Prior knowledge:
Helix content: under 10%
Distance between the termini: 37 Å
Number of helices: 0
Shape: globular
Structural class: mainly beta
Largest sheet: 7 strands, mixed
Number of strands: 11
Radius of gyration: 13 Å
Mean pLDDT: 96
Strand content: over 45%
Order of helices and strands: EEEEEEEEEEE
Low-confidence stretches: none
Amino acid sequence: VQLQASGGGLVQAGGSLTLSCAASEGSFTYYNAGWFRQPPGKEREFVAGSRWIERTTDYADSVKGRFTISNAGEILYLQMNSLEPEDTAVYYCARGSSWSGVRLQSDYNTWGQGTLVTVSS
């Protein structure tokens, strides 16, 4: 199974982007799903997660109130508003068991290839 992330690009500070992620086989139905990002020169970090069973979401403090994750079954989305230069990173989508958590990379067993988001000041 492969995940394909798309929707990245160049945007000015204060702008918006929506990232999408699709699975080559199956979907995100019955799975936990998440978005991570890796800023230039830094380690990959948690951005947002969606729990299938509890139907709850979780966000990193740095994006809370600005980003929204939604699991639409066939497609996973990340709506990003009020973007800041600090949001510049390669964004990765991931899928994991609905019995796992959502904040750790080890919670996921399937990853997308990443899509670059660049926010200019």
